[in-house]
């Protein structure tokens, strides 16, 4: 902090402990939308472990300073400035009292204290608390909070904050108060308050130690009927954390509050989690199977933060993955256990596949662009830009590798030691690594490179079989290929890669595995400790030439390069005992064919699909021994965005043409099978969001989507129209509407327009459902005669559209720019012009949301020359007009 400006670039290497500490803080809020008064009383002292500072620097933004007192005496040596408050001449130990004002009703950034639907909410991570009061707003300053809220009782009957309610009552002039005390030290980013007209679903449970706990899910009154699933998810999360990690809820009550205006998915404020309504509200009529699953996962994620993030938090924001990567891993394991327990490998594999699809499509792309950074970044301009796929999803993969190396029991030992050492502390990623290493007696010094090196590692595999000696050698080589410059700059040496492998015989059965030097075979999947740039592993007693099953269960976040033939991939798809690799074989087969077709499409050459691909897909489609959920994933083609990323020069139009050709070919060749699947996997009766029922619906609706690709989509239109009319759940209704929109692209059908109008009439009072309505239209295929940019621009003028609401902006603007690549990347550049307009508009309202949209063009250099130049022009337009650090960091890095 200085009196003039924050540093342009903040570096991890510059970390220094805070010069002052806060032993306790007492906050008093007089909540008024136009001008809220905050009285902040802090017991402070100099930090004996830090260099002595000449003055006290507090962070503060968009605040009006009213008064400052030290030990009850007005302090003249205090200067407020744009970035905070500077106090000279402070003693070593003192009580500092600051009165300030803020304007929640004007706060469109949704960071700090703001008003949404006439209720008060807060969002303090990462640096929102400084918009509430002047403070040492950094994660390594942990203290206890006592909070008193005062407000008009009629307008704000519910007053909530962190911890335990210790007092409440009425005041004069129709006002009332509530006093909350949080017994646990926490950093300011975990502070929260909520005030408004809300109602709660309540449950009382007993923890594993027999203590009674009050659980509450607070929502606006008209949404109370949509809270049961969130409550059940919370109870499941509490039970799972008790059983899997021995971690018990430490507060007497735990609260979830839903708000419609929210920049993120949810926030883990200690004991008072604030959620985007998208991840709380659900009933069969309004939420899809995906929504139900996401709510369970996000409720779990935020609850699990109570220990991995709250009880042990980050020393500084460079350590963000310490809490986020670890907690994403925990929520992934929770979801897998909810679906299949610890033993149902196929059910767990479905979750694993879903997670890896996201990682490959989004995080691998991030690794290849200008925003590439290590799991533990070395520098940033705006911390909000580093809530990234790398920190979260790749960070989770790094944590998963510990479990792969040490097993569930070894990982649990490491977690136990981590909490024993660091409960109540703000620590670093290295502290977590050292706890896992010490608990398992393993030197993990080399493993640190996973935190400090950017880019996606590539592992090249070469194999050889000696029939006479019955020896099979596997040579692994690791590197980064043509990594982005931002990634190359961080690379220091080979990684420790846990590389899981199996060998499959001619009959499709796994072979027993014995490495050279071992006395006996052990198991059929082995995790190889791959630690050198090049390393050879030799298996002995291999009686026949095997087919390798590589990187089973995706044991490390790497790209594997091995020259499988099409027949070998088809064999793995049919026989591999590892469910993930069975899926992976199908994806490799499809990707290879699609990229070859895209190359031909780019040259306007005729397209033809090899019959072997159709045969392989038919085998999966009709194999009733495979679960419906697994078949749905196996029969999904790789996304257009992922395929474009695999090209030396991304050509979205060619990829779209190739992928649509394959979809149509599979639809036509397997028409009768799709019809049979559709009929066989109906789910009559009452809706249930169970993994099994969701799997049947998913496969059935995938069949409907393929049928909608037929040149004569009459079957699909008939089935979709009936499904839409008869649906008793949003999964089937939305899938039917999507199929009707797809069918209308190839052949005009009034059924689609009729269903769109009906959908809006049915759900116009349900904001989350109307978000789906916008998104379905923004992501539809369109045609030369009906470009979707025109549809999107028209929808921008719809009375239900509000760019200030992040969910609504994401549903229309983000869906078009990020989830409709063929239309967004139109050769005329209309999509890029639209993108630039919206980034500039959002930057003036909500820089965090604008920055996320800005990233849609960060990989512009990888596209064809015609698109590249139009993207550059759009980026330069944005760079010349935006004001926020959030967006400037993105576009300036892209343009370098």
Automatic annotation (TrEMBL):
GO terms for molecular function: alanyl aminopeptidase activity; metallopeptidase activity; zinc ion binding. GO terms for biological process: proteolysis. Residues 119-190 form the Aminopeptidase N-like N-terminal domain. InterPro entries: Aminopeptidase_N-like_N, Aminopeptidase_N-like_N_sf, PepN_Ig-like_sf, Peptidase_M1, Peptidase_M1_dom, Peptidase_M1_pepN, Peptidase_M1_pepN_C, Peptidase_M1_pepN_C_sf. Its EC number is 3.4.11.2. Its cofactor is Zn(2+). It catalyses: Release of an N-terminal amino acid, Xaa-|-Yaa- from a peptide, amide or arylamide. Xaa is preferably Ala, but may be most amino acids including Pro (slow action). When a terminal hydrophobic residue is followed by a prolyl residue, the two may be released as an intact Xaa-Pro dipeptide. Keywords: Aminopeptidase, Hydrolase, Metal-binding, Metalloprotease, Protease, Zinc. Residues 567-895 form the Peptidase M1 alanyl aminopeptidase C-terminal domain. It comes from the Bacteria. Residues 455-563 form the Peptidase M1 alanyl aminopeptidase Ig-like fold domain. Residues 230-450 form the Peptidase M1 membrane alanine aminopeptidase domain. It holds the Pfam family Peptidase_M1. Aminopeptidase N is involved in the degradation of intracellular peptides generated by protein breakdown during normal growth as well as in response to nutrient starvation. Belongs to the peptidase M1 family. This is Aminopeptidase N. It comes from Trinickia violacea. The gene is pepN.
């Amino acid at each position: 902090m200085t009196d003039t400006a924050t540093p342009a670039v903040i570096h991890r290497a510059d970390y220094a402990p805070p010069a002052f500490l806060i032993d306790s803080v007492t906050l008093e809020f007089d909540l008024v939308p136009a001008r809220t008064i905050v009285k902040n009383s802090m017991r402070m002292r100099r930090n004996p472990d830090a260099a002595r500072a000449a003055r006290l620097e507090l962070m503060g933004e968009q605040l009006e300073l009213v008064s400052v007192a030290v030990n009850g005496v007005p302090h003249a040596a205090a200067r407020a400035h744009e970035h905070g408050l500077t106090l000279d001449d402070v003693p070593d130990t003192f009580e500092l009292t600051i009165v300030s004002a803020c304007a929640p009703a004007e706060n469109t950034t949704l960071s700090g204290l703001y008003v949404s639907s006439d209720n008060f909410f807060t969002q303090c991570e990462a640096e929102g608390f400084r918009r509430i009061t002047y403070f040492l707003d950094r994660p390594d300053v942990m203290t206890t909070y006592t909070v008193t809220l005062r407000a008009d009782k009629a307008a704000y009957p519910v007053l909530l904050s962190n911890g335990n309610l210790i007092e409440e009552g009425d005041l004069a002039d129709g006002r009332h108060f509530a006093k909350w005390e949080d017994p646990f030290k926490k950093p300011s980013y975990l502070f929260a308050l909520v005030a408004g007209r809300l109602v709660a679903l309540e449950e009382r449970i007993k923890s594993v130690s027999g203590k009674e706990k009050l659980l509450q899910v607070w929502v606006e009154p008209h949404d109370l009927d949509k809270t049961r699933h969130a409550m059940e998810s919370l109870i499941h999360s509490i039970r799972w954390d008790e059983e899997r990690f021995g971690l018990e809820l430490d507060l007497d009550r735990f609260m979830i509050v839903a708000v419609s205006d929210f920049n993120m998915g949810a926030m883990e404020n200690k004991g008072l989690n604030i959620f985007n309504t998208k991840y709380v509200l659900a009933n069969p009529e309004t939420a899809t199977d995906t929504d139900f699953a996401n709510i369970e996962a996000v409720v779990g994620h935020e609850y699990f933060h109570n220990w991995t993030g709250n009880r042990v938090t980050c020393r500084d924001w460079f350590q963000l993955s310490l809490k986020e990567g670890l907690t994403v891993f925990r929520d992934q394991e929770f979801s897998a256990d909810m679906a299949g327990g610890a033993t149902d490998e196929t059910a767990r594999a479905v979750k694993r596949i879903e997670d890896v699809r996201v990682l490959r499509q989004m995080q691998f792309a991030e690794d290849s662009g200008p925003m590439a950074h290590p799991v533990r970044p070395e520098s940033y301009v705006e911390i909000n830009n580093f809530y990234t796929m790398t920190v979260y999803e790749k960070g989770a993969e790094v944590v998963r590798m510990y479990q792969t190396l040490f097993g569930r029991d070894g990982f649990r030992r490491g977690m136990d030691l981590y909490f024993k050492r660091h409960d109540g502390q703000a620590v670093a990623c290295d502290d977590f690594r050292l706890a896992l290493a010490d608990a398992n007696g393993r030197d993990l010094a080399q493993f640190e490179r996973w935190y400090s090196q950017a880019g996606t590692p590539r592992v090249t595999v070469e194999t050889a079989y000696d029939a006479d000696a019955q020896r099979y050698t596997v040579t692994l080589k690791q590197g980064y290929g043509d990594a982005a410059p931002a990634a190359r700059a961080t690379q220091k040496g080979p990684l420790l890669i846990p590389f899981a492998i199996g060998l499959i015989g001619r009959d499709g059965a796994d072979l027993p595995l014995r490495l050279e030097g071992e006395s006996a075979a052990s198991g059929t999947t082995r995790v190889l400790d791959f630690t050198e740039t090049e390393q050879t592993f030799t298996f002995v007693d291999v009686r026949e030439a095997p087919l390798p099953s590589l990187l089973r269960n995706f044991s490390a976040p790497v790209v594997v390069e091995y020259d499988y033939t099409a027949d070998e991939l088809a064999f793995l798809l049919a026989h591999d005992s590892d469910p993930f690799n069975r899926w992976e074989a199908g994806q490799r087969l499809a990707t290879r064919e699609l990229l070859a077709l895209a190359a031909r499409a780019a040259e306007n050459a005729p397209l033809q699909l090899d019959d072997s691909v159709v045969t392989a897909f038919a085998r999966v489609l009709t194999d009733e021994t495979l679960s419906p959920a697994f078949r749905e994933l196996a029969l999904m083609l790789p996304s257009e965005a992922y395929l474009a990323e695999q090209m030396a020069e991304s050509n979205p139009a060619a990829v779209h043409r190739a992928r649509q050709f394959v979809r149509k070919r599979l639809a036509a060749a397997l028409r009768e099978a799709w019809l049979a699947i559709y009929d066989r996997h109906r789910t009559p009766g009452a809706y249930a969001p169970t993994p099994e029922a969701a799997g049947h619906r998913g496969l059935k609706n995938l069949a409907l989507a393929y049928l909608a690709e037929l040149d004569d989509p009459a079957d699909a239109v008939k089935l979709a129209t009936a499904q839409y009319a008869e649906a008793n759940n949003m999964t089937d209704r939305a899938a039917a509407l999507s199929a009707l929109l797809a069918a209308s692209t190839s052949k005009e059908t009034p059924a689609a327009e009729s269903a769109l109008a009906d959908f809006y009439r049915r759900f116009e009072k349900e904001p989350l459902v109307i978000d789906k309505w916008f998104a379905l239209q923004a992501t539809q295929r369109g045609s030369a005669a009906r470009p979707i940019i025109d549809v999107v621009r028209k929808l921008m003028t719809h009375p239900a559209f509000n760019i200030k609401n992040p969910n609504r902006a994401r549903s229309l603007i983000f869906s078009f720019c990020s989830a409709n690549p063929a239309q967004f990347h139109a050769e005329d550049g209309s999509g890029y012009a639209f993108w630039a307009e919206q980034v500039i508009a959002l930057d003036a309202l909500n820089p965090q949301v604008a920055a996320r949209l800005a990233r849609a063009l960060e990989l512009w250099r990888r596209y064809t020359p015609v698109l590249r130049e139009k993207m550059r022009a759009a980026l330069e337009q944005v760079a010349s007009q935006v004001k926020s650090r959030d967006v400037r960091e993105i576009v300036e890095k892209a343009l370098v």
